[in-house]
Specification:
Layout: H1 27-40, H2 45-61, H3 63-74, H4 79-98, H5 101-105, E1 118-124, E2 127-131, H6 139-150, E3 154-158, H7 164-175, E4 183-185, H8 190-197, E5 203-207, H9 210-221, E6 227-230, E7 236-239, H10 245-257, E8 269-273, H11 277-291, H12 307-322, E9 326-329, E10 347-350, E11 367-373, H13 376-384, E12 391-395, H14 399-408, E13 413-416, E14 430-431, E15 437-438, E16 440-441, H15 443-449, E17 451-457, H16 475-488
Parallel strand pairs: 2-3, 2-5, 3-4, 5-6, 7-8, 7-12, 8-11, 10-11, 12-13
Antiparallel strand pairs: 1-17, 6-15, 9-10, 14-16
């Protein structure tokens, strides 16, 4: 519970008082970048490609340092996982984007809408702020930067203060390869993040939890700064009666175990026919045992990022247990987990009730609550009655039914018969809806998100249709307009 603020009396200053305006310490950096953007003009396609080539080369050169920094920030995370999800992901996106910029940046002719000569021109917005997240500190900071540079903008980056070592390496990577008036990394604590979020950018992107996202949006609103918010929420998995439980749980396990469930689109909970819950638990235990035959010192298991989040996840498990849930933690060898290791075995929770924290809060850990339902209609009603998730996963052997579910449910993204993999397609947008976010990026959608689409109409030098709009109006023109209105109605 927060402490109520004391009443504040607001009055105009007296004539003998000096009003001191506290300037944002980061404002000079923004002003320097905006000045450079205006002076240098809109960068050519070739300049944007070179910028991405520079970024790609730098990420490649710093890859080992980045992986080691992430490992140090988490306490432990498999280098394989970091290379796959962060380093290679960023490099692949850079390569993809370099080959598409020329096509994306080309002015588009709109469908004929009454007048010839129209075109849509994509122009950079200016200086873009990017606030990264701690769970994938490299990818969720540099991936937005790819779209920002591709669309011709300058950028200020604020990595999460919860992964400070990774932030330091990214600051070094950027500062050695880009001028401060083009791309700049800002490191620091929560107050620095607050200062960062209140700057009058031309666009601000934030990745993180929904509550902080609301604060970021409020700060941006004071400057009329447009925002992209990549948030989270409870992403449901629905398993139809006709789909094999063993196959479904293997694919759910992939999405849930990656980064120890600390993924914004990880499957958060499962809805399944109540008569199949026991089968689901057995399949979960078998899949978890195969993936992690040992737990205590398994180098493939990622730790929870810090003590606060470790306590948060373990307290959610205890809350469910105290309220009558059945908690099954998969520890095949019954090992004692070393104190301070922040390892949580893959956990499945059944006999859940809606008042349990695991059914109310985003888990962000290797814990999978299960809710048994009578039928699919009950499952869909449950999902629709809650805030729109960032992702939705549906397993069904009936292809037509799967397509119908995709059309009738609202979520940021979705997979049929799989989890998480929709994020890997760079030709598709990634973003939320409602409580799970605003806007989208990746590929052409990212290029558009950080561009201003300018409508340009080019009329003939000899004649303009506006000549028909000024007086004096011939009577015959009124007759033509009346006929046109009948034709259009």
């Amino acid at each position: 519970m927060s402490t109520p603020s004391p009443a504040v009396s607001i009055r105009p200053p007296r004539s003998d008082e000096q009003v001191v305006k506290q300037e944002n310490p980061l404002l000079p950096i923004l002003e320097k970048q905006r000045s450079a953007f205006l002076q240098n003009g809109i960068p050519s396609v070739e300049e944007r490609v070179r910028a991405l080539e520079t970024l790609g080369k730098a990420v490649g050169e710093y890859s080992d340092k980045l992986v080691a920094a992430v490992q140090a920030d988490f306490g432990h995370r498999s280098p394989h996982e970091t290379y796959a999800t962060e380093v290679l992901g960023v490099l692949a996106e850079i390569k993809f984007t370099k080959g598409k910029i020329k096509k994306w940046a080309k002015p588009k002719k709109p469908a004929f809408g009454g007048l010839p000569g129209g075109r849509i021109v994509y122009q950079p917005k200016g200086v873009i702020g990017i606030m990264g997240a701690w769970n994938y500190p490299v990818m969720l900071t540099l991936s937005p930067l790819i779209g920002v540079l591709a669309s011709g903008n300058h950028a200020m980056l604020k990595p999460s203060d919860m992964t400070p070592r990774t932030a330091e390496i990214m600051e070094e990577l950027i500062s050695r390869n880009f001028s401060d008036d083009y791309v700049k990394v800002i490191t620091g604590d929560v107050q620095v993040a607050v200062d960062f979020s209140t700057l009058p950018y031309d666009h601000l992107m934030y990745t993180g939890n929904t509550e902080i996202g609301r604060r970021v949006m409020m700060a941006a609103a004071k400057n009329l700064t447009p925002v992209t918010l990549e948030l989270g929420g409870k992403s449901p998995t629905i398993i139809a009666d006709n789909f094999p439980v063993k196959e479904a749980i293997a694919r759910v396990m992939m999405g849930k175990s990656m980064n120890a469930g600390q993924t914004c689109i990880a499957p958060d909970y499962v809805l399944i026919n109540k008569n199949r819950v026991n089968e689901l638990v057995d399949a979960f235990e078998a899949a978890a045992t195969k993936r992690y035959p040992s737990v205590a010192d398994n180098q493939d298991i990622t730790w929870i990022v810090n003590d606060r989040h470790f306590q948060r996840v373990t307290s959610m498990i205890e809350d469910a247990r105290e309220k009558g849930a059945t908690v099954t933690q998969v520890n095949p060898r019954n090992e004692t987990i070393p104190a301070g290791s922040r390892v949580i075995p893959l956990t499945i929770i059944t006999n859940t009730t809606d008042d349990m924290r695991v059914m109310q809060e985003e888990i962000f850990g290797p814990v999978l609550p299960v809710k048994g339902v009578e039928n699919l209609d009950e499952a869909f009603s449950f999902v629709k009655s809650r805030p729109r998730p960032l992702a939705l996963y549906y397993f069904d052997s009936d292809k037509k039914q799967g397509e119908q579910v995709m059309n009738e449910t609202l979520a940021g993204g979705a997979c049929v018969n799989d989890t998480v993999v929709h994020l890997a397609n760079m030709n598709m947008p990634f973003g939320g809806t409602g409580d799970s976010g605003i806007g989208a990026y990746h590929g052409f959608d990212g290029f558009c998100e950080f561009s201003h689409k300018k409508a340009v109409q080019i009329s003939s030098a000899r004649f303009s249709p506006t000549a028909l709009l000024g007086g004096p109006y011939p009577q015959a023109v009124l007759g033509v307009m009346k006929k046109a209105s009948k034709w259009l109605s």
